[in-house]
Design brief:
With about 200 residues, the chain is an alpha+beta fold. The protein is about 20% helix and about 35% strand. A 6-stranded antiparallel sheet has the order 4-3-2-7-8-9. The termini are far apart.
Length: about 200
Amino acid sequence: MKTIFRSLLLASCALLGLGTASATTVIPPTFDELVGQAELIFQGTVTDVKSEWVGEGAERRIVSYVTFNVDEAIKGNAGASYTIRMLGGTVGDRTMEVTDSPKFKVGDRDILFVENNGKQFIPLVGIMHGRYRVQQDKATGDEVLLTNHGHALGDVKQLGKDDGHGHAHGAAAASGGAAAGIRPAEFKSLIRAKLANSR
């Protein structure tokens, strides 16, 4: 029988000894905050997801290691391959889930905004807000950019203005509005322009 433990962000932070207010509340970051706070930004393809138990007694928990082939470095030096360490995952018949944590599988293509890898329970800026999915539009064959929740991103200026349903104002449902969203190449160009202006 499969057992699932769902952990709230607050409980997860306590488990890892992360007591700061910023770690317990997910405030959607603006585009400037995403780019500025990230230590690494890259586009990558998931090549491996491995989960295991760590710790002893009350500190025992499941962590997952998600490895990416780095297809394109945008900020920092992630190398050819990069692994993020996340709280939660499945080992045998035990699953530990962290509320709002991104779920990765082999073959996923993503643009990631990484911070505090190995120290933060989900090492992405703004937790799920630090992951953008690169997919192919089935209708046009073009690459489209989706949020972690599967919505097309219409305007980076709308980032940080969460509507309470996990996506920003101006985001369209993937099934109907992907064609009007920002393309991955444009998104990466905007990130690089922001980095250049910040120097």
